[in-house]
Specification:
The chain is α/β, with parallel strands linked by helices. It is 39% helix and 14% strand. The protein has one domain: TIM Barrel (Alpha-Beta Barrel), CATH 3.20.20. An eight-stranded parallel beta barrel has the order 1-2-5-8-9-10-11-14, surrounded by six helices. It has a two-stranded antiparallel ribbon with strand order 3-4. A two-stranded antiparallel ribbon has the order 6-7. Helix 3 packs across helix 4, helix 3 runs parallel beside helix 13 and helix 10 crosses helix 11. The termini are far apart.
Length: 416
């Protein structure tokens, strides 16, 4: 199976990965902002052009809010076209009173609650590759074919978003963008490519090293190795061991890289990670993604920021306010509180400013669907609502309304 993967064409191209690193270098210098967002775990079952378009639409909405509200360019990276594998804290889970192997993503096995469905199936790697290829083709068509045109900014506003205070605020902003574009066109500026297209990159967690290695290719011009499964790969809190295989693999490829850092991370560990993955201190090479939890970010993050700053590593610092704030409610639903997400982002910004570091981005799990998986937000989703539209295959995601609301909160934090 891995031999078959190794013979397939690359999903992304080396020049695209280099272009992303150049854009992330702007983030590292405080000249841009990173928005990395998408599904918790992509599904083989819920795969359609509509789902992909709706997810992209929310990211474009959030990007428009952040760019227009702050004047800061936004680098858009999706958790998409490869985010099929999930690490799990426990080897087993109980579903309907039955103990089963934990679901580890559709690239490994099925999520159906039966022992047979949870048997790993290596042919699923080929299915993941094929779905990623189709997803990338759709994303390229959407972002280059007019879907991301700022002239169409109102069309991004889905009906259920427009009906909320956050949606109405977005609509007002969209009207202001329309007026600005009409002014430019009245002045004779008609064909501005940046208004009609957008750059969009893909990322996922590099968890299945066999899959990643099979899709690694050597650049014939430079001799450097690139992972061609995505533009950016990251390792998670569970797989960032200094002597582990995952960091060793990442250190051998030239893609932009990310590392998740939880509350257990120490200044010495983070310095060593930087030395291993970015020994030449290349701006844009490394993104450090803090996932501390709202209650711990103020205490745990500043020493890490200071250690990296003093070590001279030009990294991008981003906040993942999702994974440190997950809990299981009384009904057994894994969920997050919207206000905890906001609180961690605010704590991240405060810590960065305290240590004179640019708060470079956010890393989110979200969907374009009107799900009820995270508590709170303008809809006031409660425990009683969670079971209504809880469709994630693993972790709870922000819905479109909550995502737009969060973008406005981040915009306010970014304002001078």
């Amino acid at each position: 199976m891995l031999r078959d993967l190794a013979e397939k064409p690359p999903l992304v191209f080396m020049g695209e990965a280099r272009s992303l690193q150049e854009n992330l270098a702007r983030v590292a210098r405080g000249q841009a902002f990173l928005l990395q967002a998408g599904d918790c775990a992509e599904s083989f079952k819920e795969f359609s052009a509509g789902n992909i378009g709706d997810r992209l639409k929310v990211i474009l909405q959030m990007s428009a809010i952040l760019t227009y509200g702050t004047g800061v360019p936004v680098v858009k990276v999706g958790r998409i076209a490869g985010q099929f594998a999930k690490p799990r804290s426990e080897d087993t889970e109980v579903v309907g009173g039955v103990t089963l192997p934990s679901f580890r993503g559709h690239i490994v096995h099925d999520d159906a609650p039966t022992p047979e469905a949870r048997i790993p199936d290596p042919t699923r790697m080929i299915a993941a590759y094929n779905q990623s290829a189709v997803t990338l083709n759709l994303l390229r068509a959407f972002t280059r074919g007019g879907y991301a045109d700022l002239h169409e900014v109102h069309r991004w506003n889905q009906e259920f978003v427009a009906s909320t205070p956050g949606g109405q605020r977005y609509e007002q902003m969209a009207s202001e963008i329309d007026r600005a574009i009409r002014f430019m066109e009245a002045c004779g500026v008609h064909d501005v490519q940046a208004l009609r297209e957008t750059e969009f990159w893909t990322s996922h967690e590099a968890l299945l090293l066999g899959y990643e290695e099979a899709l690694t290719r050597r650049d014939p011009l430079t001799g450097e190795w690139f992972a061609t499964s995505a533009h950016l790969l990251w390792v998670g809190e569970r797989t960032r061991q200094l002597d582990g295989a995952h960091l060793a693999f990442l250190s051998g490829i030239q893609n932009p890289l990310g590392v998740k850092l939880g509350p257990s991370a120490t200044a010495d560990e983070v310095r060593a990670i930087c030395d291993q993955l970015d020994p030449d201190r290349v701006p844009g090479r490394l993104t450090l993604i803090a996932r501390m939890g709202a209650a711990q970010v103020a205490e745990r993050l500043p020493p890490l920021l200071a250690a990296v700053r003093d070590g001279g590593h030009p990294v991008v610092w981003a906040s993942d306010p999702m994974h440190g704030n997950t809990f299981v409610n009384a009904d057994g639903h894994k969920t997050r509180r919207f206000e905890d997400v906001v609180a961690e982002v605010a704590g991240f910004f405060h810590a960065c400013r305290q240590e004179r570091v640019w708060p470079g981005g956010i890393h989110l799990e979200l969907t374009g669907d009107n799900v009820t998986e995270c508590l709170g937000g303008t809809d006031e989703i409660t425990d009683a609502h969670l079971g209504l539209r809880y469709t994630t295959t693993c972790d709870p995601r922000l819905n479109a309304r909550q995502s737009v609301d969060l973008a406005f909160r981040v915009m306010e934090l970014l304002e001078p």
